[in-house]
Queue: 4 jobs
Job 1
Amino acid sequence: MKIMGIPTEPDDPNFGEEDLKGAIGLGLYHGVLDRPEHRMLDAVLQLDEITVEDVMVHRSSIESIDVNLPLKELKDRVANSSHSRLPVWEDNPDNITGILHVRDFHRALYAAEHGGEAFNIRQVMQEPYFVPEQAVVAEQLMAFRKKRMHMGLVVDEYGDIMGIVTLEDILEEIVGEIEDEHDVVRSSYTRENDKTIVISGAFPVRDANREFDWDLPEDDAVTIGGLIVDELERIPTVGERVSIGRFTFEVLAKRRQALARVRVIANEQAPEDMETTLEVVQ
């Protein structure tokens, strides 16, 4: 605040979180903060407003392994995985019975092979750690730190697995996508011009708002594809267009029942001046 010439007392009782957000916005406007710094500070302030459901990896995208796999296949699955921790299931993928740490796996496998003993994955995997889907992200970050854990299985009120949340997922909410040397770099969007972007249907709405300075609603949908489906209350066909607020979405490609690619056009009108419309492009 002082850097930007805004006077305020440290113990000012009228200075709240909204004032702090305003100060961060002014920092970006006056050039004291660059856009990545502004995004990080704004994201930190939002950690107590979002839940793990907003940042988790959905159950359909979880990479897991069957506890009863033959050892050769088990070694192949672990060797080809890009993750350091893998959920382990028994009988069906929704019945997660443990978490396998790749480092522990290789250490135990080495000991078994050189000690002449049979390898037993059940003796290596750790107990699963369950997290309610409505847990606040800021509190979960502290819980990970306190428990010295990096992964939690997200469950709903009935105990059903909804997804997984990791320490990295939460950190990416602050600093953006984290990629290491083993990650396959993929472009999730292509900018056609200043107002038009072709984007993956799986692109998170929250990330899109931050990346492109959009103002898409975040309350009811996690991904761009989910936002379109939620608005239409059905799965659109390729070629359909739908306007939501000041944005027009055109479905370019589908993969099974998921929206694979979507063209997003940012219109000039303010959201309150537009109604949701639908058209089919022939």
Note: The CA atoms of residues 28 and 37 lie 9 Å apart.
Job 2
Amino acid sequence: IWVNGGCRAEFRVERRGGYDGPESTRFTCESPNGSPRFCPSSSHGDVRLVRQISRAACIEGRTWGRERGGVSLEQGCRAEFEVGRRPD
């Protein structure tokens, strides 16, 4: 994991069953001071919001979105995300 440009985040990598079966990866990302932020993910697969941490709303398509290689946040959203493969 690498950070740049004053990025502030808590990272936790977990390997466990669940979202993608054999393993998944969780990470925390935030939009500091309401500024847009892209948080890359080292895992390939689908991203889902696991837990909103901020008081500001984290709504997919409005304050956060999936992008190739990570997620983009804005408007103060701070949340924990999980990357994995959707179950069939």
Note: DSSP finds no helices and six strands in the chain.
Job 3
Amino acid sequence: MNILYLAWKNVIKNPLNLLMSVILFGLGVGLISFLLLFNSQLKEKFDKNLADIDLVVGAKGSPLQMILCSMYHIDNPTGNIPIKNAAPLLREPHPLIKQAVPLSLGDSYKSYRIVGTNHEILGLYGATVAEGDLWKNDFEVTLGHTVAQESGLKLGDKFVSSHGFADDADLAHDHAAFMVKGILAPTGSVIDQLILTNTASIWLVHEHQGEENEGAATHEEDHHHHDHGEDHIHDNSNADLLAHPEQEITSVLIRYRNKTNFQALNFGRNINENTEMQAASPAIEINRLYSMIGLGTDAIRNLAILIAIVSALSIFISLYKGLRERRYELALMRVMGAHRSGLFALVILEGLILAGIGFAVGSLVSHLGMHWAAGFLKQDFRYSFTGWKWLHEEWYILGASLVLGLIASLLPAIQAARTDINKTLSEK
């Protein structure tokens, strides 16, 4: 009789023991696998969106909040900074700064953030135009790939923004409509989830918000006025922003000319100590975030390892108990010509099968759980996660699972191989 088939029949003979062992083992494996899936994809998103940015400068507050808002667009701004304060960063050429990209935040459409900036932001993320063109005039926008796909907006469509980052019709700026001029190709980075326009459009929307309502005709006329470029603010370069020192922006994304330059290394600290602005290093803040997340994930991972060890103990008890009940059966197998090594291998296979089933169940549950959680993560943060991704680390989990199954079945297997035929049959 095939030893693998016999081992399988022995495993399923006691459904209750099988269920208890598989549930415990699957829970431990599932937790570890889920943490791997979540952490790897989170790190992938964060690392991809670092975009080789060396420094972010904005209003005083939490540096991590500023990084999450300006680079990952998953938090609120710490405030705004006057252009006159940021002017030294925006003037070209700068001895330390290779590139300075201004950002103005505050409005959204269907929870997708509208970002006032210049065309240089595309270079940070390697973005290119797939349809239409880049924004040029006030109230023209270029959509990220994900925004275009999920909002249904097409070239030439118009829409109104909402104040803040929530999709709230009561906060809509009905007086000024944006027009879609272009759509970007997918990059897999945060720019896919943004609506890009010039900084002047952000200013104009909020200037209108503070005015008295003078009737729909007046607003339409004023909007038409900006569409045709009269008194138009062409701020697709930093030089145009500098002409409006009293206006405000949210932050500036900075790339250094030379990252190892001593002055560059102290540049952020000088800003923090000598200006009303705040500078933060994305790499430092994201590593700090990883360490904070790590405290929680380490605790869960340690719990999962403990559960896996307990489940291995459950497999041991199940096999050992089953061995005592099958002593007569094993003795008969010896009489029929089975070798000690065959009985040893039989019990080892049973332990490996239990561990393999536990791994399969745990892995399936973790991927289904990640798929389920991805919907909430996308709804809250607009970041795409998936449960249908296999990590090479999961092969190590499979190997560790089989090793635990092997260890748990080792003692029962030795006992099975040492079965005393005469004593066992005489007892019967």
Note: The longest strand covers residues 97-109.
Job 4
Amino acid sequence: MANPSERRRFHRYPVQLPLVFMAVAPAPAKRGAGWTRSLSEGGATVELAERLRPQLSLRVRLQTDRGAIETEAQVVWIGGRAPEGGGILHGLAFTRIAPESFQTLCDVLLPLAMRRHAGIRLPLDLPVTCQPTNPPGSPLDGRTGNVNRGGLFLRLPRLLPPGTRLELTLHTAK
């Protein structure tokens, strides 16, 4: 049998949002509040003050800086206490969400999804001149190998000590 992370269809992001919930049935209606621990297009891990029943249907309202997200959900798993004396962890699967709430959810998750890919390195082969500045040194001609938001992979004719500061000139076609 697959573990829960293998069955999951949506990537979860660590997001903490306040939430309120109301049990749909049975009467009397149970109400409560808590926090999300992770969030996806299909559900959330939430931290609540009390233990709910498995398969309980809920109406949930998440408050975001982009507006409220209102959804119906079902309790799909119940875990232990959160670290640092927190509440009880529950897994919720969203069962019904209005299009406007789904759009708000996507607007919250999109920047997180983009950040996830920030580490991807893109191939880039350009001539480069590197001038060591601290300590000063003679210029080195080399080539780039790849690039991402955090820096460049450089191919240089000699090894430089870690921490060497460089002034780079990328030579691009005109």
Note: The first strand starts at residue 18 and ends at 23.
